[in-house]
Amino acid sequence: MQEKEIDFIDSFRTLWAKRKIIIGIVLITVIISAGISLILPKWYKATAVIVAPIADSNSIGLASLSTKSMGFGSIFSDNSDQLRLLAILKSRTMLDMLNNKFDLQTKYKMDFIENTYEAIQSNMRINIGEENQILISYYDKDKEIVDDIVNYIVSSLDSLNISLSNDNAHNKRVFIENRYNSLLDSLKFLGNDISSYMKENKIISLEDQVSSAVSAAAELKAQIIMKEIEYDVQKSELHDNNIYLLNLEKEIKLLNKKYAEFFENNDNKLFPMFGNIPEIQFNLLEKQRIIEYYSKILEFLGPQYEKAKIDEINYMSTIQIIDTAFCPNLRSKPNRKLIVIVSTLSMFFLSIYIILLRERLLNKR
């Protein structure tokens, strides 16, 4: 502990003895760093603030109703707008547009276009704010042009995003239109199929026909039973060759034949055969279920198709500009105070280290 205190005291004495040298080094550093900071070129920064567009609730109102009724939920809420804007800002297309507009390759005195792109990317800053706003900044030595560059970036971003959105809207419209037309054709085919099936099986209204057939069969069966009872009663009183008995017997046979037609195939009858009713009803329900399924999809795609057609011709701005860039009056860099302070402190501690190191080496010798 005492050795450390002795070392500290010795170091302090050494530094105090060399204080003039340290002060001289610090003053020289201040002068040189201040001079260098004055010589360094001035850079100016312009910044614009934008946000991704907010989805229009009215534009998807019809579709959302259909999606809810179909049980699909909302399919329109996503974060893709901001990501798409960032991708456009960092794209080669944006760099090409900037270079062609302001002839930056000549301005930056670059021999190759790749070097120009690197210079543009190093001067352009893209940041995301706390409220998800996009801050677009650009640095340049010419303060008269820096705001024009940033505002051009914003306008180009909007036009490129509109172009991409329209291409996407066109492809979406074509896809939905093809699916919509395919559903219409399917429904038309299914309608013709169920119509042919009903004609083939003599079906007008199956439920009403079955109800009427059951009533008619029950009434016919009641007549047969009454005639059989009458025949049995009369047979006990009359002889077998009696004309009345023979007529009753013929009537009973004719009624039984009519009753049997309810259980046999007959192309001329109005009522469906009882044995075929379960199969006919099952087939009808299956065909109607398929038609209802396609109709539900068509009900969902209808508003989607109309929205897609509107979106395809929608040329409104796709970004919202909060702050436009303006011509800066103050430089952004270099920060002269920071340069002087950092360089002065660095040389101050470096001079202390060198003096103490030199003194220690001398003592060892």
SSE layout and pairing:
Blueprint lengths: L1 H16 L1 H21 L4 E8 L9 H10 L9 H10 L2 H11 L1 H4 L5 H11 E5 L5 E7 L2 H58 L5 H30 L7 H18 L16 H36 L7 E4 L12 H29 L1
Antiparallel strand pairs: 1-3, 1-4, 2-3
Helix pairs in contact: 2-12, 3-11, 4-8, 5-7, 5-8, 8-11, 9-10
Kindly summarize this structure in a few lines:
The chain contains 12 helices and 4 strands.
Structural account:
Strand 2 and strand 3 (134-140) form a beta hairpin. The protein has a four-stranded antiparallel sheet with strand order 2-3-1-4. It has 365 residues and is α+β, with helices and mostly antiparallel strands. The chain has helices at residues 2-17, 19-39, 61-70, 80-89, 92-102, 104-107, 113-123, 143-200, 206-235, 243-260, 277-312, 336-364, and strands at 44-51, 124-128, 134-140, 320-323. Helix 5 (92-102) crosses helix 8. The chain has two domains: 44-179 and 315-355, 2-Layer Sandwich (Bacterial polysaccharide co-polymerase-like), CATH 3.30.1890; 186-300. It starts with a helix and ends with a helix. It contains twelve helices and four strands, in the order ααβαααααββααααβα. Helix content is 70%, strand content 7%.
In the CATH hierarchy, what is the superfamily of the largest domain? FepE-like
CATH topology of the largest domain: Bacterial polysaccharide co-polymerase-like
H/E element sequence: HHEHHHHHEEHHHHEH
Q: Order of strands side by side in the largest beta sheet?
A: 2-3-1-4
